[in-house]
Amino acid sequence: xxxxxxxxxxxxxxxxxxxxxxxxxxxxxxxxxxxxxxxxxxxxxxxxxxxxxxxxxxxxxxxxxxxxxxxxxxxxxxxxxxxxxxxxxxxxxxxxxxxxxxxxxxxxxxxxxxxxxxxxxxxxxxxxxxxxxxxxxxxxxxxxxxxxxxxxxxxxxxxxxxxxxxxxxxxxxxxxxxxxxxxxxxxxxxxxxxxxxxxxxxxxxxxxxxxxxxxxxxxxxxxxxxxxxxxxxxxxxx
Length: 238
Known about the structure:
It is a single chain. This protein is an all-alpha fold. The protein has nine helices and two strands; from the N terminus they run H-H-H-H-H-E-H-H-E-H-H. It starts with a helix and ends with a helix.
């Protein structure tokens, strides 16, 4: 019985991703974003309980990847698609069938993120080099960035009137590259309590806490962006 507990939690993660996708394409962007956060919580606890109960299995690993594709690749892509649709038409809820060819292309293009998310998980599931650090940006980080950014944007729409659809598509392209790149992204796991060797982790945590304090949900997106920048700088220096 206990061996089914982690897989059940993984399926709850996938369910959050499915419902988030439905919400996103229906114009309910904030609801979709909160469901991605819920999926991330389930994603954490499925691994936690698998280790706690000593019931890790190849099936669980594959199921976890499927859930991550849905919750942190397809659902974020759907959110970006709906936001781009809003930028083009000024309406969150317009029927996709009423879009002309150019607008329809804008709406479809964000789903490239889902393809690269799936490609990343397939690629690195077969890679045993990720022992200390991640290679490339994880799908979970990508999904959480999308969710927190969109909650902040929806809450401050008047401040983001300058955003153009091409800017969103360019950002998606950058994330696609990061997903499948082999640039080392430092792990946030702290293995010892001394400051030396944990400088980047401590700095990121402190900046993240301040960002969340002042920006709310947007602080999470800023923290993930800084995580990427710190990792790139650390990679170049070393």
